[in-house]
Amino acid sequence: MKRFPLGHVLLASTIVTGIAMASVGAAPAWAEPSQAQSAFQLVQRAGNTLTVRKGAVIIEVAALRDDVFRIRIGRDGTLPRDESWAALENSRNSKAEVRDEDTDPAFGLATRGGSIQINRISGAISVENANHAVILSDAPSGPFTTDGRGFQLTKMMSPDLHIFGLGDKLAPLDRRGYVSQNWNTDAYTFQERQEPLYKDIPFFIGYEKGHAYGVFMDNTWRSVFDFGVAHQDRMTFGAAGGAIDYYVMTGPTPKDVVSSYTWLTGRSPMPPRWMFGFQQSRYSYPDEKTVRAIAARLRKDRLPADVIWFDIGFQDHNRPFTVDAKAFPHFKELIADLARDNFHSVVITDLHVAHLPGAHYAPYDLGAAQNAFVHRPDGSVYIGPVWPGPAVFPDFTDQKARTYWGNLFRERYIDDNVAGFWNDMNEPSIFTALKTMPNDNVHHIDEPGFQTRDATHEEMHNVYGMENGRATYEGLLKLKPDQRPFVMMRASYAGGQRYATTWTGDNTSTWNHLRLSTPQLLSLGLSGFAYVGDNLGGFVNSPPADLLTAWLELGMFNPIAEDHTDLGTRPQEPWVDGKMHEDIRRRYIEERYRLLPYIYTVGEEASRTGIPMMRPLFLEFPQAGGGLALDLQAPSEFMWGASFLVAPSPFPEEANDYKIILPPGAWYDYWSGQKVENATAAEATGNSGTSSAIVADASQTPHMIMEHPKFGLLPVFVKAGSIVPREPLTQSTEEIPQGPLQLSVYANDTMSGDLYTDDGKTFDFRKGQYFRQHFDGSLTNGTLSLALEAPQGQYRPWWKSIDVTIYGVSMSAKAPTIEGAKATNVHFDGKMHAMHFTIPYQVQTTKLTITMGR
Fold first, then answer.
1. Span 376-403, average pLDDT
2. Quick check: is 328 in a domain?
3. How far apart are CA 388 and CA 63, in angstroms?
4. Contact 288, 330 (CB under 8 A)
5. Residue 271, class by beta-carbon neighbours within 10 Å (0-12 exposed, 13-18 middle, 19+ buried)?
6. How many whole angstroms separate alpha carbon 582 and alpha carbon 575?
7. Pick from 2, 519, 602, 752: most CB atoms within 10 A?
8. Judgement on whether residues 712 and 749 belong to the same structural domain of the protein
9. Is the pLDDT of residue 25 over 80?
10. What proportions of the chain, in percent to the nearest 5, are helix, strand and coil?
11. CA 384, CA 377: separation in Å to the nearest integer?
């Protein structure tokens, strides 16, 4: 593909999409000359909505919640239909309490969380937050420009605004100064700054001086987002067709925005616990003997693992819903044997169905009988080449086709106890020059909440992959309604997190792609996908030993930890590079398993609140350094939940020392348990390359330490005041840990933590079968108070006692005293400044007072 210099990217994207670009100061393309200076007229105020009109243009704004506004603009005298593949119907129909807020220049309405105004002359829309600060405003030209089919929105940008989101884009976390295109694409061997990629998530976060807002443009057509390239002080975004229908979230914090966006588009359902274990895969394990050998070696070498994946090579001629009987003659028995050894099997189910009329291939025969496939404009079924050869494609926007697809999982995979399913190639990827279906292919929309009609592939392309994942998820729920489905899909649209996890696609085994993985995963988390991963070690080509080791170290702090590689590459299992590398890799895999109580707790929080597991620093510390996004100073760092800071080198292949930014507050080195004592005030590097101290009040001042890269050591820190649950090492999530639950307490003036667990498999937690416990504490004058609150829920956990380790405490010669519970195994580690003791588990609140001695 021809590449364009950055300054020409916008023009190139405009040519591709047909999105109109209006000159600055020109009259809006929708305004007739005689109407250019006429006024918008009030049509109605009804409940939470305000509607105005000028000529053929009609604008409706609605307050769905105190912090969420919806804007719909009709260009032909009617409003767009109230339909959405992404925004939930209950959320779209939600109504906030509003008050009128008209002024001489504008119509307006307000809530407790903000206000929205429409200029009476131009129709320009502006939004304020609860503090009456303008957070988003149209350019003076008006609310949109158009070429008749496509449209473009232009908003002003202040000099200090930063932009985050849009899913898995290959650019720095901050999108300002970049142009992004959304058109789901099979991007094999993608490279830095490549556009477009696999997913279309037209949602972004604006962040300035600690305050944030969000914008979601709900449009499935090809779209382009320009954040300050064509005009430094403006953002422009729009689509090649479809409705103008978008939402603004007023914040004020980044977490508020992410939570509101996932309230609107849905949150990731709680996955099975085994998803958080280590997962081994490749394209493809050639036969049953190899799979059994991989599983046996993982157990023999004491490498904890939970999942083995089956790529397309296990199928008969790459045909979905088949098994190669020669290479896998005892597939059902293989899956059962793996399950007995606590391995869960995930199999690929690409969406292309081999075109095999008359060959007794059930997936084709059933779909053809139900007219369930995508068509050409002449009414014929579309046939395109993919892995099995000529193939047809289920029409997933038709509920009948989704039901057909979901039922295909019963005969073999469900009955054979396959645990999870992988929807790959669902952009859709097709082996033609276009790389996908023709734009004029015809989809049938038959969907609750939608007008029944036919639509072109150009309109449905970006939502097609998500509806594939939806068909799989809903089909599995129907077949096993009590079991949590696991679905992985590559392409998706906003809201796809309701149905499936995702990963970053076909990356390469390079140091640069290791570096790129962190902003990609962070951005997906901000964009609604709480459970994400990448191909650890890289998919394309073979990583050198030190790269694979470094990637597996980092990957143990990703939501999904899957080691996967391409056809023809060397083996990539943890043992392939000898004992030294295997020992390091095992250490990090084991640490993930020890941290499973913490990881599962953070995962449950994500499913409940929408806050991702893997978090950029600004999400957790929005006010740090006066509201500076610390990620811009430390682009390789991220938070793992609220307690852990992971800080790899920004250039992991280099041996140079690098700075680690520690957000405000005290921190502990996770590996040593020692409190960090040598931090200095952090400095912010400006555009000129000069540095200056980050000035803020003391409680919000970040600090910095210098780190010398050490082979086999990934710097990880724990926020002081954290109480982190851990468990004895197991070899899989199916094993019951032997011994006490472990609580690591990182002493501070105040302390807190949480623990959540359940059966890890079913939806019984919705019926009260869960365990939730909160911990808090304080440290004053050598006396530490610790409270383990009474657990909530009816689920009984596996532990009968609790080992407590308190880091960061000093002791005199006098032995400590512990009141509130019978403590055993009490001892103090002077080198680590850590105190250990064991107490019995109790169903009521346990309050401990620990006097360090005088």
1. 98
2. no
3. 49
4. yes
5. buried
6. 5
7. 602
8. no
9. no
10. 20, 30, 50
11. 15
Asked if residue 438 has pLDDT above 90, the reply is yes
- Residue 295 tokens read as 């599983």
pLDDT at 31: 44
For the chain, give the mean pLDDT: 93
Over residues 755-768, the mean pLDDT reads: 98
Per-residue confidence (pLDDT) for residue 248, from 0 to 100: 98
For a pLDDT cut of 90, what percent of the chain falls above it? 89
**Spatial distance between the Cα atoms of 126 and 117, rounded to a whole number of angstroms:** 5
Catalytic residues: 424, 427, 506
Of 245, 265, 285, which residue constitutes the final position of a domain?
Answer: 265
* 694 and 763 housed in the same domain: no
For residue 413, give the DSSP letter: I
Task: Name, in order, each residue with C-beta under 8 angstroms of 197's C-beta and a sequence gap of 6 or more.
Answer: 167, 168, 169, 170, 185, 187, 190, 505
Q: Cis omega before residue 259 (within 30°)?
A: no
The tokens for 695 are 């000035």
**Who contacts 568 (Cβ-Cβ below 8 Å, separation ≥6)?**
none
Instruction: Let me know: does 361 contact 354? Beta carbons within 8 Å.
Output: yes
Contacts of 27 (CB under 8 A, 6+ apart): 33, 36, 141
What is the dihedral angle through the alpha carbons of 117, 118, 119, 125, rounded to the nearest 10 degrees? 90
**812 pLDDT exceeds 70?**
no
Q: Is the residue at 100 inside a domain?
A: yes
Tell which wins on pLDDT, 8 or 458.
458
Please report which confidence band the pLDDT of residue 537 belongs to, taking 50, 70 and 90 as the band edges: very high
First to last CA, the chain: 73
Instruction: Report which of 433, 495, 421 is spatially closest to residue 199, judged by C-alpha positions.
Output: 495
Which of 244, 265, 286 terminates a domain? The answer is 265
What are the structure tokens assigned to 10, written together? 């916008």
Q: Report whether 181 contacts 16 (CB < 8 A).
A: yes
Total Cβ atoms within 10 A of residue 420: 22
Pair (106, 155) in one structural domain = yes
Determine which of 89-93, 230-234, 257-261, 825-829 has the lowest per-residue pLDDT on average.
Answer: 825-829
131 assigned to some structural domain: yes
Gyration radius from the chain CA atoms: 28
Amino acid at 275: M
Q: Each residue of 637-647: pLDDT tens digit?
A: 999 999 999 99
